[in-house]
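Batch manifest line 338
LIGAND: EPU
JOB: complex structure
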Amino acid sequence: MLLEENKSLKPYNTFAIDVSAKYFTVFNNVDELNEVIDFAKNKNEKHLIIGGGSNILFTQNYDGIVSKNNITGIELVNEDTTYYYVKANAGVSWHNFVLHCINHNYAGVENLSLIPGSVGASPIQNIGAYGVEIKDIFYELEAYHITDKKIIKFNLQDCAFGYRESVFKTIYKNQFIILNVTFKLNKVAFYNTKYGAIEQELERMQCKDLSIKNISQAVINIRSSKLPNPKEIGNAGSFFKNPVIDETLYSSLIQQYPLMPHYAAPNNKQKLAAGWLIEQCNFKGYRSKDAGCHTKQALVLVNFGKATGKEIFDLSTEIIATVKQKFGVELEREVNII
Ligand code: FAD
Ligand code: EPU
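JOB STATUS: finished
ARTIFACT:
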């Protein structure tokens, strides 16, 4: 195990927050992961596993060991008349996995193109975009239990996926390290273009034949037009979840704001667009020192250069309070605060 001390984490988080880790290492297989876990235990150090660092906000130096999962490889493990079963190791970059599927004609993952990060983190918050979540294509995963070092299989039910939720964020938080995920991908594609912007973009592209490649390209175009590229401006995508509210609050809000975007959610609830709520509070394009709110997508908080994690966090607190005061809606952070 190659262990580095006092290591800058700036290249390892897409917010580009300049903090350091007391110890840092990369593991390439389970034996090396065992070493990391033993080291943390013996030294009584806390441990943080990261993938691409694209859903993390560091608010201080990490006083422990940060380890980056670098177990790579993608394999077709099985197939039946309907599906390909494709296993990807946790260190594979998510978008490379999507490209692999498109190149091999494995359908179902194309709407999730260009999401940053790793395969291993994809089940943590059940990543989703453009009408698809990973729960729709998930088959099973293998995860390493940190305390007893056993490898446990989780099927779809075990993961209890919800909107930006899974057991790995709730009852099993910080207990498992995901090693690989097997996805169930369609042999015959069912194109999902119901998310309005996709159809518009396909028309703009003058796309005559629908294919997973064209849908992927449409999604890439839409995302690139409104989401900041972390290589240019630090960010972690949507900073907050879209809030789900009950019928009573929804009825009173829609009377006051008839143009408010809203989507039907389970149990008679309504999901609102946090970006719209934040924009209505005049935060879109807001900047305080180097912490700000993206000019094209108010839901994305950004680091213009030298913002600290605390400054971004404080801005998020101010946004939560302002939205609560204006709309009576409580925003919840999506990004993991460390
Ligand atoms: P990290 O940020 O490294 O880690 C996230 C959390 O998962 C941490 O708590 C970490 O400890 C834990 N973790 C990481 N790897 C493992 C593992 N192997 N086992 C156990 N725990 C682990 N998300 C969406 O859902 N939809 C989007 O459309 C979307 N768009 C984005 C756009 C941009 C520009 C950015 C920057 C982010 C976006 N995100 C989106 C958020 C992010 O890409 C996803 O949450 C992604 O899955 C995070 O992967 P990661 O490897 O970077 O995780
Ligand atoms: N809107 C505004 N102002 C803004 C931003 C959005 O009025 O500044 C409105 C839009 O006009 C639209 C609605 O809000 O009516 C929804 O906007 P958009 O389609 O951009 O999607 P979103 O709800 O803001 C969610 C996900 C994204 C995902 C997209 C596409 C969450 C928290 N965010 O964003 O995921 O890529 O839908 O499916 O659910 C992420 O999780 O990091 C992420 C980027």
